């Protein structure tokens, strides 16, 4: 069935062009006078009229059009990549953002992620480099692979996994899962992993749980993390303290790299607007995202204070334990108390051990206070909690009914004559 989707898509696009040409007012008059534009040429040669107009336009107008086209292309690519991060299966996300392809120990070509690739795969708005994308890599032969050097510093945690810092698909999937688990849940899950009850976890016990979570998509035995966690012979066990220390180091490394990627020029802080873009992430609608960014820019745009690296790391420690934070906030909401800035800082200090600064608290309130009444609603925290949880999606096949609904919705939004009928004052109902 999937082999017919390209044909159905081309048919839908052609039908939309035909209907919009015939049923619009100008198109209908041109059709009657036989001076119409051919619908098929409209679909197949849509850029011909634009090229003719551009050849007659002055040079300055051509430059403006090219800039607009470039900015629109950049915006469209960023939106596509954000949807990819949010809805696609992890295997497709890995194939899109991975940039290295070389032979593994068995002599077969395998794709790998660099630490920068991994950061782009989880950071909203971070664009993939040009000429790289889905199943498009830098292929390295044996000689080039031996000369390839990582760009990370020597104390990076990724170099502890593998000497060149390269990540396999199993590494990517395991790291994504670990970044989304709060510390409280790790302590509970560690007891569940411990099948024999000795207080430690072996590689076989962790492998059993990982295969169950990912439904066979990833294996601890194929991951570079096994040597870092269980030794070169995979014979030693892992305690809860060692595992929590590893998670803390991983979170700090990833968010520090994310902070450095947002730095501009020689500044040591990032702007409040850039911080708000990271906080809003993927799951917010375009209108709500635009309103929140406007509030932040209006309040902090003229200031040069910014967000420091410590505040950036404190925020991610704060949202990492957002489930416990939501439970603490529930007691305030049940009593009818409002969540003020002092209340939020107190809850953050008691529950997660993070002391939020006054400036960081003001920025958080500016982002989530939609009514500008200095009160944050509980649903805003639930939205934030869903944003920073990284579930492992399962494979889903597109049903025919869903495809037909999508086709009708796109046709309704594309055809201009529906809008002209609804806005025309001369239109009357048939009944």
UniProtKB/TrEMBL annotation:
GO cellular component, one term: uniplex complex
Example GO biological process: calcium import into the mitochondrion
Keywords, ordered alphabetically: Calcium, Calcium transport, Ion transport, Membrane, Metal-binding, Mitochondrion, Mitochondrion inner membrane, Repeat, Signal, Transit peptide, Transport
One Pfam entry name: EF-hand_8
Keyword field contains Aminoacyl-tRNA synthetase: no
Keyword rRNA processing found: no
Annotated PROSITE patterns: EF_HAND_1, EF_HAND_2
Family named by the database record: Belongs to the MICU1 family. MICU1 subfamily.
Protein name: EF-hand domain-containing protein
Source organism (scientific name): Drosophila gunungcola (fruit fly)
């Amino acid at each position: 069935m999937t082999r017919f989707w390209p044909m159905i898509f081309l048919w839908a696009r052609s039908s939309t062009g035909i209907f919009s040409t015939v049923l619009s007012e100008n198109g209908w008059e041109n059709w009657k006078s036989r001076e119409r534009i051919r619908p098929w040429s409209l679909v197949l040669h849509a850029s011909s009229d634009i090229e003719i107009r551009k050849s007659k336009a002055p040079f300055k107008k051509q430059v403006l059009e090219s800039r607009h086209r470039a900015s629109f292309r950049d915006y469209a690519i960023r939106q596509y990549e954000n949807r990819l991060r949010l809805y696609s299966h992890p295997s497709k996300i890995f194939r899109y953002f991975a940039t290295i392809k070389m032979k593994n120990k068995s002599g077969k070509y395998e794709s790998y992620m660099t630490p920068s690739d991994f950061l782009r795969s989880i950071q909203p708005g971070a664009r993939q480099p040009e000429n790289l994308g889905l199943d498009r890599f830098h292929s390295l032969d044996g000689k080039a692979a031996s000369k390839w050097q990582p760009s990370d510093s020597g104390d990076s945690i990724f170099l502890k996994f593998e000497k060149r810092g390269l990540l396999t698909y199993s590494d990517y999937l395991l790291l994504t899962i670990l970044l989304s688990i709060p510390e409280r849940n790790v302590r509970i899950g560690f007891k569940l992993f411990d099948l024999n009850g000795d207080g430690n976890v072996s590689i076989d016990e962790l492998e059993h749980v990982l295969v169950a979570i990912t439904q066979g998509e990833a294996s601890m035995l194929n991951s570079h993390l096994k040597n870092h966690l269980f030794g070169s012979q995979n014979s030693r066990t892992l305690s809860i303290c060692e595992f929590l220390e590893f998670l803390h180091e991983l979170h700090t490394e990833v968010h520090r790299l994310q902070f450095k990627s947002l730095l501009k020029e020689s500044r040591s802080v990032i702007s409040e607007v850039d911080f708000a873009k990271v906080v809003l992430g993927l799951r917010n609608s375009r209108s709500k995202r635009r309103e929140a960014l406007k509030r932040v820019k209006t309040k902090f745009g003229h200031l040069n204070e910014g967000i420091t690296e410590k505040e950036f790391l404190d925020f991610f420690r704060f949202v990492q334990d957002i489930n416990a934070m939501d439970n603490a906030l529930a007691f305030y909401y049940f009593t009818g108390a409002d969540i003020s800035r002092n209340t939020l800082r107190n809850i953050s200090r008691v529950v997660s051990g993070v002391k939020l600064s006054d400036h960081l608290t003001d920025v958080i309130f500016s982002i989530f206070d939609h009514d500008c009444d200095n009160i944050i609603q509980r649903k805003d925290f639930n939205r934030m909690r869903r944003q920073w949880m990284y579930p492992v999606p399962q494979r889903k096949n597109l049903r025919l009914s869903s495809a037909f609904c999508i086709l009708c919705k796109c046709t309704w939004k594309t055809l201009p004559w529906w809008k002209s009928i609804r806005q025309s004052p001369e239109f009357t109902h048939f009944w």
